[in-house]
Amino acid sequence: MTATAPTGGRIEIAGLTKRFRGFSAVEDLSFDVEPGRITGFLGPNGAGKTTTLRMVLGLVRPTSGYATIGGYRYGELERPLSTVGAALEATNFHPGRSGRDHLRVLADAASIPTARVDELLELTGIPAAARKRAGAYSMGMRQRLGLAAALLGDPQVLVLDEPTNGLDPEGIRWLRGFLRRLSDEGKTILVSSHLLREVEATVDDVVIIANGRLVQAGTMADLRGTAGALVRTSDAEALAGALRVADVTSSPGEEPDTLVAETTDLRLVGDVALRAGLPVYGLEPRSTDLEQLYFSLTEGTNRNEGAQSAADQQVPHQPAPDQDPGAASAEEVSS
Amino acid sequence: MIPAVRSELRKFFSTRLWWGIGAAMFLAGAGFAVILAIVLTLEASPEAVAAGQPTGSPTQVANSVYTGGITIGLTLSLVIGILQIGSEYRHKTITGTFLAIPRRGRVMGAKVVALLLIGAVYGVVSLLGSVAAGATVLSLRGADPFPDAEVLRALALSLLVLGLWALIGLGIGILIPNQVAGLLISIGVVWIVEPLATFALTFWEFGRDHVVALLPQSATNAIVGGVTQQTPTAAEPLSWWVSALVLAAYAAVLAGVGTVRTLRSDIG
């Protein structure tokens, strides 16, 4: 019944709100997560991502609103581990229990055979280490063990909270390929991260929240916008006119005598300039600065709501606009 | 429910705690049995009895010998109960537990069943030590190691006692979220607060007659029916089955309150 629900493996979140003693962690949040796609769930630390995911998984009771998976709330699922797999934190292990026993404890609870446990240890590449006690595991091993736990019941839907935390570059690449394979099988995958850069190569859709509110939801392509070409010439206005004749829209660049043409065809821009008798001092492809866009999106709302004292305590300080955003956020501790 | 209980049992037996506690149960059972089998078969002079030397019928002596390690046993059971839920919160494995079984009442029910089973198993381990050692020493000293079938009742009830104390631990483990604090406080209550309270209450007539017997360890000792003090200020113990109900009430209230709290709480 649960596996063949009419909405398949879609996650639907509607009007989800959670308030803790007057502090609003998540406020009227609504979005859908589609099957067969990887959705990035983004926001700065303290934005309410983890609280949202915990409400989806029935661990935290919403103040109002609801979240359903394939049309059912988590608590109503007949076989939860075979419907939704979740990896929330890489530290959810008893240090004195082996990784394999950790999985067997969960497998027992969900009536999953031990053979499946060993199969997953192979799949996630930790069969030998899994017999050692989990307290000695590296962060990367914990992430893999968490992923193995999420996949135990071969679920249609995967919910992963900051799965790249603590993974080395090789691990991140492995995870990317792994998630892509699962998504190609038609699974619904929701991955949270506080860094757009970490997931931008992986995700198809993005949902961005800040201060518990939705800021943006759409495809990654929408967020990127149209790619263009940045051209530097002596008379930007004249070149804009020449490009218009060639059916290419353009807009003035940030610096004087520069132009952003809405085409990825650099050769076309060069040819037009040559025909118009205008010099080309520089010509390069230009894509949206996603990281900059992400920070402007999440920071704008933050500033508007900065009056909440409780929110100030909860939300780590945003990097100032002139700082390098990547360097600043790398120092933040994950929520 | 059976898968949930199996999962709880695997949680307990997949860390190194279980054999350490098992060894302690066995040694405490055997050790106290030897000591009590010697002490309780000493000739009791009237002066010594008046000064507080515990005495009893051959049945009470046998009961005391075989369940002499019960204070250690109940303390260890308490620890097991606290850890069965406390370590889930401490190491955040409670998240995985509730993801696998979102019906939290079922999880708590499984913990209760598992702890009663674990208590009974350790009770058997403890009795293996205490009956083997105690019966040997009693025979050597010329006392009857099995004077009455009532001894068997005491042995069977000691299994229940350990399970009930584990449930008391389960409740404490939920009500005192800091696991280390929970362990220290409950052990302090068992070893220091309750003995002091029992002593203090003997100076107050109402307390001696109506309160002391209701304290958890007094109830425990009355269930297994051991020797008693014959001094004028000693409290009169309740019958074994009333005491069993009293101890079960402690377990039910603490585990029940803890369960209700768990059902409603946010797991963050």
Automatic annotation (TrEMBL), chain A:
PROSITE patterns: ABC_TRANSPORTER_2. Gene3D superfamilies: P-loop containing nucleotide triphosphate hydrolases. The keyword ATP-binding applies. Keywords: ATP-binding, Nucleotide-binding, Transport. Residues 299-316 have a biased composition (Polar residues). Residues 299-335 are annotated as: Disordered. It holds the Pfam family ABC_tran. InterPro entries: AAA+_ATPase, ABC_transporter-like_ATP-bd, P-loop_NTPase. Residues 11-236 form the ABC transporter domain. GO terms for molecular function: ATP binding; ATP hydrolysis activity. It comes from the Bacteria. Belongs to the ABC transporter superfamily. This is ABC transporter ATP-binding protein.
UniProtKB/TrEMBL annotation, chain B:
GO terms for molecular function: ABC-type transporter activity. Keywords: Membrane, Transmembrane, Transmembrane helix. The keyword ATP-binding does not apply. The chain crosses the membrane at residues 17-41, 61-83, 112-135, 155-176, 183-204, 238-260. GO terms for cellular component: plasma membrane. The keyword Transmembrane applies. This is ABC transporter permease subunit. It comes from Phycicoccus avicenniae.
